[in-house]
Amino acid sequence: MFDNLKKIQELKRMQDALKAERETVEKKGVSVTVNGGMEVERITLNSALDQEETEQVLRQCVNEANKNIQKRIAKMMMDSGMGGLSL
């Protein structure tokens, strides 16, 4: 039981550390910042782009930022030995 409590506490610490991670992707003056909790924290648009191009570039930035942060989270979990955690 205490082992499970320790694992839960360790998971909470890791979750807090992951949430502090940030990934920013910029394309054509449009940038998106995503945190380790997969929340979009910041979007900067380029007013020189038309709506269609803005939407396309924004979608690309969000998708790439999410993919990159997922890779970083997976690496952090593997490096910490949490990859195969079972409660």
Characteristic terms for this protein:
87 residues, alpha+beta, 3-stranded antiparallel beta sheet, Ybab, Chain: A
Explain what this protein looks like in three dimensions.
- With 87 residues, the chain is of the alpha+beta class.
- The chain has one domain: Nucleoid-associated protein YbaB-like domain (Ybab, Chain: A), CATH 3.30.1310.10.
- The protein is 55% helix and 20% strand.
- It contains 2 helices and 3 strands, in the order αβββα.
- The protein has a 3-stranded antiparallel sheet, covered by helices on one side.
- The model has no long low-confidence stretch (mean pLDDT 87).
Describe the protein's topology:
Elements: H1 2-19, E1 22-27, E2 30-35, E3 40-44, H2 51-80
Antiparallel strand pairs: 1-2, 2-3
Poorly predicted regions are none
The termini sit apart by 10 Å
CATH topology: Ybab, Chain: A
Q: How would you name the CATH homologous superfamily?
A: Nucleoid-associated protein YbaB-like domain
Can you count the helices?
A: 2
Average residue-wise pLDDT:
87
Sheet having the most strands? 3 strands, antiparallel
Structural class estimated from helices and strands = alpha+beta
The geometry reads as elongated
Strand/helix succession:
HEEEH
**What is the total tally of β strands?**
3
Q: Give the count of structural domains.
A: 1
Content of β-strand: 15-25%
Fraction of residues in H or I helices: 55-70%
The gyration radius over C-alpha positions equals: 17 Å
Give, in spatial order, the strands making up the sheet with the most strands.
1-2-3
